[in-house]
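User: I'm writing a tutorial on reading structure tokens. Could you give me a worked example: one chain, its sequence, then its tokens, then a sentence or two explaining what the tokens reveal?
Assistant: Sure. Here is the example chain.
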Amino acid sequence: MTIDVPRIRGKVAGLLTRYGIPSAAIGVLRDGEITEFAVGVKNVETAEPATTDTIYQCGSMTKTWTALAFLQLVDEGKADLDEPVRTYLPGFTVADPETTAKVTARHLLNHTNGIEEAFGDPGEDDDVHERMVANIAGAPQVFPLGHTHGYSAALGYAILARMMEVLDGQRWDDVMRDRLFAPLGLTSTGSRREQVDEARAATGHLIRSLAEGPVVTPVDHLPRAFGPGGTITSTTREVLTMAHVLLHEGRALDGRRIVSAAGVREMLRSRVPVPDPYLFGPEWALGLIVCDWHGETVYATDGSTIGQNARLRLLPESNTAVTVLTNGGPRESFARQVLTEIGTELGTVTPPELPTPEPALELDLSRYEGVYERPGARYEVSAGDGTLCLTLDLDPMQAAFLGRPARLEYELLPVSPTQFLMPSADPLEDTQTVAIYDFTDGAARYLHTNCRVHPRRASAMTPART
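And here are its predicted structure tokens:
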């Protein structure tokens, strides 16, 4: 079955207007054939149209690329997923002795290492990953090694990158070029902003109100410290070229072997549970999210920078991959609707809706109350009138730019004893999902949202709302 591109294009154009998103580039890989189209403009100030050759920032989708390259080193016998990091980086040290001695590449790939992202400012030079590893000698644990899933935006994959640099004898950017980009024939994909053809690049946008419309982001790229976990830029066709490797046991579109079939199977099958299963999926594999779409396993890799979003879904049962790249707007609701339209058109499985709250659940609300925080993020959960409320402290600069209050308050609607929906009255903000869990000591120990985990502050005493 083929896609009715004009019909889908019209649907996407309507969604772009509804959400205030300047553009979207969409690609579908089905049985080895790629269909792609773009709608909108790549920059609201220039009104230049987006095309299928427009280059978008992939954000954390970069982690899947880095994982593939690392699995090549495993194939070659140069690295082992379960050997301690210190086998390859003898000077590796963090505050916790057990983590120092035992953390492995597998912990880094599936985000169970628990190391706080306390790497300071490692600069923008070629030794950035070496500096990051050196800077975390005193980094504490957010949670004990292997205890839970807790997303690492930059540090975990930077440690992997440093291992790759030592093993391959060149910087991470060159490892990616030589091991993936060049063998796959990718001419529009890169890991450094200096490599991007500015004439083809999408500009990121933020939206403060539908009345104002999207505005160009004040931060147009991520620091180099985020490289292995977030700085790859690409096009729909080249993202799908990478997707083909995962759908076809390590082979490129031209049949070339990129990673062994065993390596791809390990990426897909080595999994850990995710405390908050509804935003993305119930499990995390090696560089991929494992989703459950109405009983069918779908793999996901997503990314967001400050003003751009990238989504890729792999549907092995129908030999299909779909990517959605945008330069603004809500992250999940737009992509979910586009994926639903395309899945319906193709006759494949479509994304599930968020679950329905269970207001009849009887919860001891006092077990959830408290302050859950990490550097740069603070969540306060309080109880009142038989409900739970979450208060989020925004970064003052972010709040000022977006014209929002410094503290945002949300009601938590229970789905289960540990999982909650967090709806917003703001039409531009997606409903979020939250897990509050691990009652080993009576009160919850962790809050998990947007894949990130936040430990409960032991001394926190949160008064009830009145």
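What the tokens reveal: Confidence is low (pLDDT under 50) at residues 460-466. The first strand starts at residue 23 and ends at 30.
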